[in-house]
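#onboarding

Welcome to the new folks! Below is a worked example of what a typical request in this channel looks like: someone posts a single protein sequence, and someone else replies with the predicted structure as tokens. Don't worry about understanding the tokens yet, we'll cover that in week two.

Example request:
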Amino acid sequence: MIALGDVVIIGGGCYGTFYTGQLEIARARGAVSYRSLIVVDHNPQCQAAALPPDAARTLLVSDWSAFLDGWFDRAERDHDGLSDMIVPSPMMPHLMAEWLARQVPRYWSKRTGELVPADGALGTPYDRLHGDGVRYVSFADWLCPVHCIEPLRCPIIKAPRTWEMGDAVAAWTSARGAAGPALFTCRHVVHGVGMYPVARAFEGLDLLTTIAERPEGGELVIGSVSACHGAVAVLRVAPRPVLVAGTPAHR
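Example response:
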């Protein structure tokens, strides 16, 4: 049996409801255990709200970013040796890049943190820079099966999967001369549900610390990826401009 701590599902729509049902089936069959299951959605009438009651499940009505700001507490997570997990939605924004960007003013008052366009192609078959500055990439130039667990043998090409998105993002990061990457890699755990440990957030914060404490700052590449697909962002940290008395900005 796989033993987990608190499991957070981002979104209570069709994907989140499916993941919830799969985890509860897996628990009933003895494939997984968890301390609690938390479904986070801003809509109290989301699809997951109609699920039959379960004592281990909570529907938390909250903005995703606000929830993560309060829940990502290093002292509170994984306190009993069980790994707390995040189940991301394939349709969510790049929440982890946004979370790391918000940590800059929280911890470093003399630094600015800005998400800048992730310029430069990775070279994957699908590679697009979105209007939000995030680069969305995929090794698939076909339609993947819904809820594919990305096995070692690709079910579409019926051949071994020879690619790994984390490696591609690492190579892109090195070529850019940036720090990182801070990777939030979603892997299949049980019954078709992929997730990543909350520990990845704190590892990303540690990488951010090395940049924020450099006099000149720098860039950190942040990737929310699976084996085949990914969203790549660049967080630029720089010294906060010193305001001089008498300037318009100072006044």
